[in-house]
Amino acid sequence: MQDSRSNNINTTEAKTSKQKMISGSAWMTAGSMFSRILGAIYVIPWLIWLGKDSGANTLFGYGYVPYTIFLSIASAGIPSAIAKQVARYNAVGEYKTSNKLFRQGLLLMIGTGIICFLVMFFGAEMIAKWTVAGKTDTLFPITDVAKVIRSLSWALLVIPAMSLVRGYFQGYQNMVPSATSQMIEQIFRVIFMLGATFTIMKLWNGQVVDAVTASTFAAFIGALFSCGLLFYYWVKAKPSLERNLMESRNQMDFSTMEIFKEMIATAIPFILVGTAIPIYQQIDQFSFVKIMTDSVGIATKTAEVTFGIVNFNTNKLIMIIISLAIAIATTVLPLITESYTNGKIGAVRTQVSEAIQLFFFVMLPAAFGMAAIAGPMYTIFYGYSANGEWVLIAASISSILLGLFTLIASIAQGVEQQKFSILALGVGIVVKMITQYPLVFMFKEYGIILSTSFGFTVSCIMIAMSLKSKLNMQFKLMLKRILLIILMTAIMLIVTLLAKMIFGWFLNEASRGQAFILVMLCVAVAGGTYGYLALKIRLADKLLGDKVAGLRRKLKIK
Predict the structure, then answer these.
(1) Is residue 25 part of a domain?
(2) Which of 7, 74, 204, 235 has a Cα-to-Cα distance from 478 of 20 to 30 A?
(3) pLDDT tens-place string over residues 290-314
């Protein structure tokens, strides 16, 4: 009788955990996807007003890559670190400790934001010199690059503290504030960006550098509006948070210095892992143009335009699908931390398995689907380019590895495997640096994607083996389902390519308007095919929950 009751409790906990994972992932996916899609759509009018061959995307990328690294140093690890620690203390009823952690962390984030702002603002010219690698025949002089870098530095005053608030809500497994604040941040960022660009270029007949500078300053404007929405959620949640404080066990008491030490120790691995993609991009930024000009013999300006295709154009599009992995990783971290803190290793194994299966379930069709329609997709955002199409195909497939690293590195840190995650990242970066020159020399812009893929592959394998050993993971069922997902994706890919070929007889993918229609038709075919297969073989039920069965009945799929 007792065993039966225990099994019922475990089953209920597993269902609750899965429901939280699905719900949280849905909210984070919605917020992240909306932000990424809007962040890609704005490029269409933005490049029209600036000029397709103006080099604006390259200049934008020159500023954004170092900014992303500074932002990661200032705050990237904090939302995840706070979410992990808040979930950990809440799991044992120490709400007062988690609240104290939040308050002291807020001060720390304000401080790191100010420091990073000052370094980036006053060190802009030095960073710009590193960025253009000493070349004199570049599209933009060092002073222009420095101007863009300075305009981005202002966002560092706001975003670190804002990120901490998001992490605090995530620690309570409430993903709504993070998701909706991302949407608001992006909406107002894009409004300011497009408004400023149109005014400077069309009304004032201004310079490209001024429009790009205003565009990058929009990150600060968007962050301010996001903070306003988070404040609203904070006021709304305050009564509930105060009740938790009254129910706190209060058996732990840490000094401010101890809290700072714990927070920094927890955040550093997240910061390092969170900067993985920007570090890889920075390696590309420092080396690609130099290799192409010094060894391949291509003119600097031509190499910079090519680099803009890889670093800015395709990167914006693949980040839409990588955001799926980020959403799952953000959601699963507090769940795994809570289970691991309470010693429920069986629950952790289940959560890890479900998270990885969910990742492949959404990531594989998204990545290969984008690869299938890469040509018209690229045309919609940047205008027709045969080279852009092939680069996007390669980048789309490579995004699976970037997303997988994001997920399993987050899982590893949830089960106290921080040091190994950093080691795996370091080994991956070394692989990237070793393979960068020969691969770029042989395959030019595709060499960037290949060396990145090799680096992340090594890191993923290392972390996967570590998780298997740490949790005694059994991959048999998971691998069976992943193979099934691969088969479903392959069928979807074939059907989509056939549809693209048929529709291509009537629609010209070199025309932006016709390319849009072609993409919409192919997305409908791909989504319909994959959705039907997932419902037909009941895989969607297993991964997304019982509610999917109702959808199947409505669609009369037996």
Answers:
(1) yes
(2) 7
(3) 898 888 888 888 888 888 888 878 9
